[in-house]
């Protein structure tokens, strides 16, 4: 059984079939019956790129996947010849796809499988063909052996050092370094060209070096090949001293280098030409010689440079234009000038284009005798040649087909026949590339099929719009007709409307519309029908709603909820309190028409809602319960002249009922001796937030009739609150309800965002309209998006608050706008916002990563910034990973934790700080976008210089006698270099006066020092620091304690080793042991009282024992002082000066084998042991002696 408004998703398939008579694409429906019966030619869905370079160390995967019904079979051609996969020992096919896997682990050579591959996917309805995949193995050859003669040049002349890297696949990235693996510093005078050569606009004496080496980095194998170094000797009139001053602004004048006018090192001549393909990058280069170094400027004849796509690089010597289009053709001029002269060179740029689609052929699904056309339009420069193929063979060589006519870039099909299904290929090619597209024509002859249940029962509410669905499928497209109760010639017209997708709309369901409706679908192949039983029910309404109640504590209240509903529908009544299900207590009674609460209290206060539901509709009404104290309702208790809150307004009346406004009139209540200053109008609606009163407007206290501005599609009721200086009145009773009609949305969705969760998608999200803002039911959002540089918008309607755009390029900018639509029309469009598709891993590495200006705690890092297009996302930072590999101090272990630091500058330089001195470091760099990191750069290793050490590990002051102070320390945890010793500074301290500072120096292996005191009351302030060759490190400060009140103090470490102390402790232990033995004997004899004093007493029926098993006689001596106390002669208790408590844990101190205490000297007592031994007499040596007496 289906409810009103439940629309079957299957009903959309017939709507697709409406377009089959033109050019249309159809997917196999998910219905199992359709999947079994609908046949479809194959379609290639996944394949490897045309130019496919692979790493020889990995298995080679050549992808080919297709879909179709029946599932396709696969064949391959290699170099236009049949490729028998089964006979190739190292080649396997991944079933059920056609993907090939070539493994070289068992002796195969990857180079043996280079060539051009093409995949053919076929079933009984046609053959789909993949692109021609050119498989090549990446190569990283060595430099050719060559002997480079030393170069001798005169200072001021120009020079080019050729690189000529080996021809790798793909071509390597080149950079210049010296033998110390430091990059050759480049500037306006010295720079590397696009071909890898190193250009000197003019040579200076400081350029003399024996190790100019060109390096080639091969991306696939992560290897770097190095060319034999050039040796350059510069002859000059004046010797060059690198320590002498060097004028950066005029490096030539100080050295008397003759000035020369500019001349181009590259390109040669006055005019050159360049060809570039559409969509690629245009790179133009001008490098000039001259003294002083010429500056380069770029111009375009007859126009301006496209500034948003232009980037000047290599000190303005290189002009880069990304995403080239035909409008970038023309003449570009580079001008080189210095103070001597100016020259220019013109580069004529031609933009050609590989083929690109204007109208890509689409799949055709036709029924017998129908017509259709398939077009293939591509653009390029030169104009592409169009070639048609059928099932992988040139269409000219196939059998003639009277239903098919080829006219250039179009194939026309007329009155197609069953069995004419095939896959057609369009190949658009010119000298710069080709495009290959598959498109099938599928001739279907299927009898009609109903995609829903054969019988349905739909219940609707009277006067509501109703839809009866009849999802169907068939070819040719079936004719659909509706009948009621088996009568009539078809329902369409009046308050019926039949849609082409099979749905029948009843604009306003009335009781007479109830009955059985039959949907009949028919074509030349057959006929099928379903029946839909429609029942029209009375609406469910609350005819007597609960009213607001104010009542005193302890009284009873009743909320009414009388319901009128269709007698054939079961109803369910639920009461809510503050929008939550009501928990029924013993004081609450619910019947069919009311809710009664007895003995109310403050906890019962709140908004009560009666919610009535049937299976197809519902209604609700709310009222508020206010619990008052008794005197709150008694006006007689008030003083006649005492000002109070006003009485509630009454007699609310609605008039002037318009579409978006209504007039509200009321009678003010008594002002209670304080004039009313304001009226507050509130509203409540029962659709979105029933029972919640909201402020609508406020008005002066001298009016009682106002015109209220309303929102569309809201069922209002109003109340009024009067306000004076004392406060607000109780709300008035609610007015009658007034429902406004619907309208189109007034505002557009806000907070629109577009961002990708994957590299090939973009999720569009927005803040949906609130319920009040919707203005009508059935709100949908029209989401529109387009590429930033395109004109055509894509659109889709959705009821959700997000939409996912698939198959995008990586981090591609999009324009996005959203419009809300309801049953009454369209709202305003939102402003266009900019969104981006998802990010991918950056593909480039920061080249020439190196360091300079190495200090003890910082180092300058340098790199070549990557092309922004290779970041594949929003650039975040250049991220350096660095780790401290070892300390240069022998034997010192270090933490090799890897740390990171980000650099946001695009200048290619930064400073890395917080390094540990005198250490070996490794680091590399990656470029990071918001989600991913790119491949790592080359690893740079360096050693930080020596620094000052950290503070000593510890520094202790011990006074061994009244005349000396003994100092101890340990070496620093971080020496930061080779320690050469320690420096100790100290001076006497007497209050605020200090003595003369004295300095002592020690060798690095000395860690103690004894200072003789002039007298025992002298105090010292000490400062200790370790030293390296760089200087003194962090200072450790200590102050000696004041020993003037002590004869001799010893530290806690040495006292236990003193002979006198050991003897004393042994004697004390022996005495304690003897006393414990005597105490035990005494206790076993019954305590101090003789047995004869007890013999006449009756025995307890229960023996009382201590925890240790001895008998307890409840002696008067049980309440003895605790251990550590003794009894004086006058019977009072005093603390013992010699108690063992002062030296351990109570009297239970422990000794080591050498006689020293295990524990430190604490005054902690074992509470449990003390409480478990009720008599403390035996634990006191003095008390034990008294008991012996």
TrEMBL record:
Q: Where is the composition biased (Polar residues)?
A: 731-742
Matching entries from PROSITE patterns are given as: FN3, IG_LIKE
Q: Which residues form the Ig-like domain?
A: 42-130, 144-231, 262-350, 355-442, 453-535, 539-626
Annotated membrane-spanning segments are 1060-1081
Listed A to Z, the keywords are: Cell adhesion, Cell membrane, Cell projection, Disulfide bond, Glycoprotein, Immunoglobulin domain, Membrane, Repeat, Signal, Transmembrane, Transmembrane helix
Q: Which SUPFAM superfamilies match?
A: Fibronectin type III, Immunoglobulin
Q: Where is this region: Disordered?
A: 629-648, 731-755, 1092-1189
The record's Gene Ontology cellular component field reads: cell surface; growth cone; plasma membrane
Query: Its Gene Ontology biological processes?
Result: axon guidance; brain development
MF terms from GO for this chain are: cell-cell adhesion mediator activity
Q: How does it sit in the membrane?
A: Single-pass type I membrane protein
**Cellular compartments annotated:** Cell membrane; Cell projection, Growth cone
Renumbered to this chain, the signal peptide range is 1-25
The record's annotation in InterPro entries points to: FN3_dom (IPR003961), FN3_sf (IPR036116), Ig-like_dom (IPR007110), Ig-like_dom_sf (IPR036179), Ig-like_fold (IPR013783), Ig_I-set (IPR013098), Ig_sub (IPR003599), Ig_sub2 (IPR003598)
Instruction: Cite the record's Basic and acidic residues compositional bias ranges.
Output: 1092-1120
Fibronectin type-III domain residues: 648-743, 748-840, 845-947, 948-1047
Q: How does it assemble?
A: Interacts with SHTN1; the interaction occurs in axonal growth cones. Interacts with isoform 2 of BSG.
- Annotated function: Neural cell adhesion molecule involved in the dynamics of cell adhesion and in the generation of transmembrane signals at tyrosine kinase receptors. During brain development, critical in multiple processes, including neuronal migration, axonal growth and fasciculation, and synaptogenesis. In the mature brain, plays a role in the dynamics of neuronal structure and function, including synaptic plasticity.
Q: Hey, which family's this protein in?
A: Belongs to the immunoglobulin superfamily. L1/neurofascin/NgCAM family.
Protein name per Swiss-Prot or TrEMBL: Neural cell adhesion molecule L1
* The species this protein was found in: Clupea harengus (Atlantic herring)
């Amino acid at each position: 059984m289906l409810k009103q408004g439940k629309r079957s998703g299957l009903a959309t398939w017939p709507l697709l079939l409406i377009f089959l008579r033109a050019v249309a694409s159809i997917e196999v429906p998910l219905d199992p019956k359709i999947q079994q019966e609908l046949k479809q030619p194959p379609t290639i869905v996944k394949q490897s790129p045309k130019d496919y370079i692979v790493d020889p160390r990995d298995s080679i995967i050549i992808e080919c996947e297709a879909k179709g019904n029946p599932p396709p079979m696969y064949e391959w051609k290699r170099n236009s010849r049949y490729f028998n996969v089964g006979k190739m020992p190292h080649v396997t096919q991944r079933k059920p796809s056609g993907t090939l896997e070539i493994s070289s682990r068992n002796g195969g050579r990857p180079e043996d499988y280079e060539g051009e591959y093409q995949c053919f996917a076929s079933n009984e309805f046609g053959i789909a063909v993949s692109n021609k995949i050119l498989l090549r193995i990446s190569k990283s050859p060595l430099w050719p052996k060559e002997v480079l003669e030393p170069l001798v040049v005169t200072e001021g002349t120009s020079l080019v050092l050729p690189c000529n890297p080996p021809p790798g696949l793909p071509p390597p990235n080149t950079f210049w370094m010296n033998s110390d693996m430091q990059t050759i510093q480049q500037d306006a005078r010295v720079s590397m060209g696009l071909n890898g050569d190193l250009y000197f606009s003019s040579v200076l004496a400081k350029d003399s070096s024996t190790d100019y080496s060109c390096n080639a980095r091969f991306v696939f194998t992560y290897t770097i090949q190095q060319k034999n170094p050039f040796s350059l000797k510069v002859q000059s009139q004046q010797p060059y001293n690198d320590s002498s001053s060097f004028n950066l602004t005029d490096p030539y004048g100080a050295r008397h280098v003759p000035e020369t006018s500019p001349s181009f090192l590259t390109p040669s001549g006055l005019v050159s030409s360049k060809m570039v393909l559409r969509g690629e990058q245009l790179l133009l280069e001008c490098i000039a010689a001259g003294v002083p170094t010429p500056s380069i400027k770029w111009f375009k004849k007859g126009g301006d440079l496209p500034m948003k796509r232009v980037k000047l690089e290599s000190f303005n010597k290189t002009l880069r234009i990304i995403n080239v289009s035909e409008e970038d053709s023309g003449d570009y001029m580079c001008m080189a000038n210095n103070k001597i002269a100016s020259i220019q060179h013109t580069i004529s740029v031609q933009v050609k284009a590989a083929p690109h689609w204007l109208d890509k052929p689409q799949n055709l699904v036709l029924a017998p005798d129908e017509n259709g056309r398939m077009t293939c339009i591509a653009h390029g420069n030169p104009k592409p040649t169009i070639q048609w193929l059928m099932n992988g063979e040139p269409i000219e060589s196939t059998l003639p087909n009277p239903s098919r006519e080829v006219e250039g870039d179009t194939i026309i099909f007329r009155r197609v026949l069953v069995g004419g299904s095939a896959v057609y290929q369009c190949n658009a090619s010119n000298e710069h590339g080709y495009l290959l597209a598959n498109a099938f024509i599928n001739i279907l002859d299927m009898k009609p099929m109903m995609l829903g249940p054969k019988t349905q029962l739909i219940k609707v509410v009277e006067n509501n719009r109703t839809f009866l669905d009849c999802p169907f499928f068939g070819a040719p497209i079936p004719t659909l007709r509706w009948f009621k109760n088996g009568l009539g010639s078809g329902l369409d017209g009046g308050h019926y409307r039949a849609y082409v997708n099979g749905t029948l709309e009843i604009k306003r369901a009335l009781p007479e519309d109830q009955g059985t409706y039959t949907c009949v679908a028919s074509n030349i192949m057959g006929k099928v029908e379903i029946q839909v039983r429609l029942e029209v029910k009375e609406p469910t309404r609350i005819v007597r709603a609960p009213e607001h109640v104010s009542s005193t504590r302890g009284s009873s209240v009743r909320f009414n909820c009388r319901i009128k509903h269709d007698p054939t529908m079961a109803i369910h009544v639920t009461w809510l309190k503050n929008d939550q299900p009501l928990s029924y207590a013993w004081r609450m009674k619910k019947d069919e028409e009311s809710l009664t609460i007895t003995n109310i209290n403050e906890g019962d206060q709140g908004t009560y809602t009666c919610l009535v539901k049937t299976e197809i509709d519902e209604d609700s009404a709310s009222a508020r319960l206010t619990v008052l104290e008794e005197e709150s309702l008694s006006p007689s208790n008030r003083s006649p002249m005492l000002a109070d809150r006003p009485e509630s307004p009454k007699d609310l009346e609605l008039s002037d009922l318009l579409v978006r406004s209504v007039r509200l009139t009321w009678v003010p209540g008594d002002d209670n001796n304080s004039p009313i200053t304001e009226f507050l109008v509130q509203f409540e609606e029962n659709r979105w937030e029933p029972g919640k009163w909201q402020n609508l407007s406020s008005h002066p206290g001298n009016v009682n009739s106002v015109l209220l501005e309303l929102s569309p599609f809201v069922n209002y009721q109003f109340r009024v609150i009067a306000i004076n200086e004392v406060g607000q009145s109780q709300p008035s009773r609610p007015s009658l309800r007034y429902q406004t009609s619907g309208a189109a949305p007034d505002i557009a969705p806000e907070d629109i965002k577009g961002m990708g969760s994957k590299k090939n998608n973009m999720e569009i999200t927005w803040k949906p309209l609130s319920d009040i803002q919707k203005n009508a039911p059935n709100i949908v959002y029209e989401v529109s998006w387009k590429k930033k540089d395109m004109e055509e918008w894509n659109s889709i309607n959705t009821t959700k608050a997000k939409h996912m755009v698939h198959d995008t390029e990586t981090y591609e900018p999009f324009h996005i706008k959203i419009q809300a639509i309801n049953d009454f029309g369209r709202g305003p469009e939102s402003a266009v916002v900019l969104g981006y598709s998802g990010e991918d891993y950056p593909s480039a590495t920061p080249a020439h990563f190196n360091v300079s200006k190495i200090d003890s705690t910082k180092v300058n890092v340098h790199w070549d910034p990557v092309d922004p297009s290779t970041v594949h996302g929003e650039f975040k930072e250049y991220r350096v990973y660095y780790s401290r590999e070892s300390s240069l101090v022998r034997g010192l272990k270090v933490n090799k934790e890897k740390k990171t630091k980000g650099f946001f500058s695009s200048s290619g330089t930064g400073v890395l700080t917080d390094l540990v001195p005198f250490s070996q470091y490794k680091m590399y760099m990656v470029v990071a976008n918001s989600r991913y990191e790119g491949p790592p750069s080359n690893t740079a290793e360096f050693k930080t210089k020596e620094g000052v050490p950290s503070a000593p590990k510890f520094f202790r002051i011990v006074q061994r006698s009244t005349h000396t102070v003994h100092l101890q320390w340990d070496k620093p945890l971080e020496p930061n270099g080779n320690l050469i010793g320690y420096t100790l500074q100290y001076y006497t301290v007497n209050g605020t006066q200090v003595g003369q500072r004295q300095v002592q120096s020690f060798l690095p292996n000395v860690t103690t020092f004894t200072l003789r005191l002039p007298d025992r009351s002298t105090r010292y302030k000490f400062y200790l620091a370790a030293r390296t060759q760089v200087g003194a490190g962090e200072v450790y400060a200590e102050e000696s304690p004041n020993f003037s009140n002590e004869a001799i103090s010893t530290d806690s470490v040495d006292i236990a080793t003193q002979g006198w102390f050991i003897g004393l402790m042994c004697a004390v232990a022996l005495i304690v042991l003897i006393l414990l033995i005597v105490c035990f004997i005494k206790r076993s004899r019954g305590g101090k009282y003789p047995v004869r004093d007890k013999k006449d007493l009756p025995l307890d029926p229960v023996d009382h024992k201590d925890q240790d098993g001895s008998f307890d006689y409840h002696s008067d001596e049980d309440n003895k002082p605790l251990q550590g106390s003794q009894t004086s002669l006058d019977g009072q208790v005093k603390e013992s000066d010699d108690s063992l408590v002062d030296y351990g844990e109570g009297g239970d101190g422990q000794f080591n084998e050498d006689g020293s205490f295990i524990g430190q000297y604490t005054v902690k007592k074992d509470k449990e042991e003390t409480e478990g031994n009720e008599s403390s007499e035996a634990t006191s040596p003095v008390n034990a002696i008294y008991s012996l007496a």
